[in-house]
Amino acid sequence: MSFELLAEEDGARRGRLTTAHGMIDTPAFMPVGTQATVKALSPDEVRALGAQVLLSNTYHLALRPGGERIARLGGLHKFMGWDGPILTDSGGFQVFSLDHLVKVSDEGATFRSHLDGSEQHFTPESVMAIQRQLGSDIAMAFDQPVSWPATAATTKAAMERTHQWAARCLESQPAAGQLRFGIVQGGFDEQLRRESAEVLMGLPFDGFGVGGLSLGEPKGVTYRLLSLQTAILPRERPRYLMGVGTPEDLVEAIARGIDMFDCVLPTRIARNGSILTRGGRINLRNRRFIEDAGPLDEGCDCYTCARFSRAYLRHLFMAGEILGHRLASIHNLRMLVRLVGETRQAIGSGRLAQIMATLRDQWALAPLP
Ligand SMILES: [Zn+2]
After folding, report:
1. Residue 67: inside a domain, yes or no?
2. Ligand 1 geometric centre to CA of 296 (Å)
3. Which among 80, 196, 73 has a CA at the least distance from the CA of 141?
4. CA of 310 relative to ligand 1 center, distance in Å
């Protein structure tokens, strides 16, 4: 694997990560394909909107259809018909989001499947074995995030367990060419966030996820902890901010040295008729769009905006037509892929601060906390 830094400016970085299934230009936004599909879109449509890499979920695929089954069917790329890079998360976030249903020990986590209530057990070793079966290009280490707010004792215990699990993940055999990323934690405590970055960077991971942020804490806390960790993490390895992806978050995190993102936001809100535009979010169910002949966003170059009006999309949503979900998903994903792409191209131009200010203005983003 190689991660090449091509330019740096004001703490932001432009780079290129080479994986077994191709190259990723960074900063990169990864559409989420939880169930081995980006909801409602074909791989060709996802490719056409400019995405180079997808995220899929170990937790969901392990429960259904199962890692072994996907391996027998030729691996995740073949199974889902996507030949580009795939990152799989470790399931840590999903398992610990089940909250009252999870029992954790140093050995691993026992939880009830959300599908059939069956008892399941994940360990660092089993999670890496599932990701080996899936054959993803980037496998994430098993971790224990904490929710906001968390006590100091809970946060410290979860962080220390995450560090032990990280070392055990590295002892497992990866799939051929598979990269492994550790996940820094530390809750909402500055000292623990610093400690976690320092411990994890001592391990031979190919890159690092910043986990456990944007879980309900104030934005100012998120950005402060993020700045603190990216200042410590090694410059020559990629950094991935996990599960974060409002337009505002993307711009602010890129400015703080983040290289990769994933978020369900653009596709999840699309299915409710909520549309990302420069100038803010709109909901197509609103009556004011009933005869609006304009595109979803004036400046957008996506398939949906080239062909269809707000009035038509609104009609599809009111009529409950599936095409509405598809067209809105294409647009919302394209908006974020393009926002990240425009920011990426600005890094190293010598005009990053000015371009960022224009983007914040165009997108009506909140001022810096
Ligand atoms: Zn569009």
Report:
1. yes
2. 6
3. 196
4. 10
